[in-house]
User: Which sequence fits this backbone?
């Protein structure tokens, strides 16, 4: 039987996730297997929690990585805090806001959607109007919407939620480790993320953090949440001082997350955020020099993911297939109403490097030219280089 793993080529991952992984993180996954209650592993767990708090920019005691992808973090945030009949206000400006609303609906919540045009952030004034409609348990927003590339402001939303007696839930899947999440400073009560985006760790874990108010809500809940596996009271007993058995932790994934977080902290959060900003600006400048139209206004874009309209007459899938097969680069197609009309380009974590932007722009230019839409590649590269001069220097 053919060993398909041996035939895998190196791929530059510049889609909406996963991102490319640092070699040291991959090596960490190959560290010796030990038991998930081994005292040495418990020390690794403690260190991982400390690193997670630093990256979330929080002092929250209830901070841990759930065993599951980012969607498990989303579901945990819903099933633990939303009860049947609760009123939940959800920002609907992209695919993942819609997923949050669907999860809350399945919990039996009264879901109030605050609909906004795709490609634009949810307005605080609209949230306030929705909150005025009745007692609300939770306001849920996607911080960096992976389907559109919009960066959602959180401070005013947190203030509006708290004035109405609600908690603020933030989806930080595409922002954690690449964009300031600043959980404590912004007043976010609950936040979750995934490991495979700006943290540049393979997918499989969902970092989650809850402040004291949210933690008390978990403790005070009458009855158990409908999910045993994602019950935060039970999971926290394993990750806390008790070390009470809940499930077998994905040991080697914790190794990988530990190393990925160490790389974030060693680089320094501000330096890492600035790298993501500069690399994104380089990508934007290069795309605009090709006369391609970016979807989201610059002051509303997240540096970790860029959406660009596909030129008229160009086949979305054909370009992405050629990028992968010929150039070894993966980008993403669009979701929902933008499917076939836009590309999603990720500059996350290890993928957010100037050399990757140059390689991608040159490859995209070759693909567009082959399919009948010639662009100025030299001009694009020069514009990108100028925009990233601070990093290159």
Assistant:
């Amino acid at each position: 039987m053919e060993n398909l793993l041996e035939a895998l080529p190196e791929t530059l991952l510049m889609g909406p996730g996963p991102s490319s992984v640092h070699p040291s993180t991959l090596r960490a996954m190959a560290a010796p297997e030990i038991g998930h209650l081994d005292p040495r592993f418990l020390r690794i767990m403690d260190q991982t929690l400390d690193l997670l708090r630093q990256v979330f920019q929080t002092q929250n005691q209830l901070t841990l990585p759930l065993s599951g992808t980012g969607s498990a973090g989303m579901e945990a945030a819903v099933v633990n805090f939303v009860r049947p009949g609760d009123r939940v206000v959800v920002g609907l400006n992209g695919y993942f806001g819609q997923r949050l609303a669907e999860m809350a609906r399945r919990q039996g919540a009264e879901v109030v959607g605050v609909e906004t045009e795709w490609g634009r952030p949810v307005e605080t004034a609209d949230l306030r109007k929705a909150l005025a409609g009745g007692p609300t348990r939770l306001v849920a927003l996607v911080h960096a919407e992976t389907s559109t590339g919009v960066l959602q402001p959180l401070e005013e939303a947190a203030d509006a939620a708290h004035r109405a007696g609600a908690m603020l839930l933030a989806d930080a899947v595409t922002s954690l480790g690449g964009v300031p999440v600043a959980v404590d400073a912004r007043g976010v009560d609950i936040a979750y993320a995934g490991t495979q985006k700006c943290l540049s760790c393979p997918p499989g874990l969902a970092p989650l953090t809850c402040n004291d108010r949210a933690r008390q809500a978990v403790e005070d809940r009458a009855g158990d949440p409908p999910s045993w596996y994602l019950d935060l009271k039970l999971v926290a007993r394993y990750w806390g001082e008790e070390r009470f058995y809940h499930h077998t932790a994905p040991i080697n994934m914790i190794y990988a997350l530990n190393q990925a977080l160490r790389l974030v902290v060693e680089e320094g959060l501000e330096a890492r955020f600035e790298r993501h900003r500069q690399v994104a600006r380089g990508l934007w400048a290069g795309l605009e020099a090709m006369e391609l139209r970016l979807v989201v206004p610059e002051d509303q874009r997240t540096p970790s993911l860029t959406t660009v309209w596909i030129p008229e007459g160009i086949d979305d899938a054909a370009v992405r297939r050629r990028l992968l097969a010929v150039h070894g680069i993966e980008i993403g197609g669009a979701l929902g109403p933008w499917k076939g009309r836009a590309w999603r380009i990720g500059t996350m974590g290890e993928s957010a490097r100037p050399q990757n932007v140059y390689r991608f722009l040159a490859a995209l230019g070759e693909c567009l030219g082959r399919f009948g839409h010639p662009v100025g590649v030299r001009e694009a590269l020069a514009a990108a280089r100028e925009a990233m001069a601070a990093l290159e220097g």
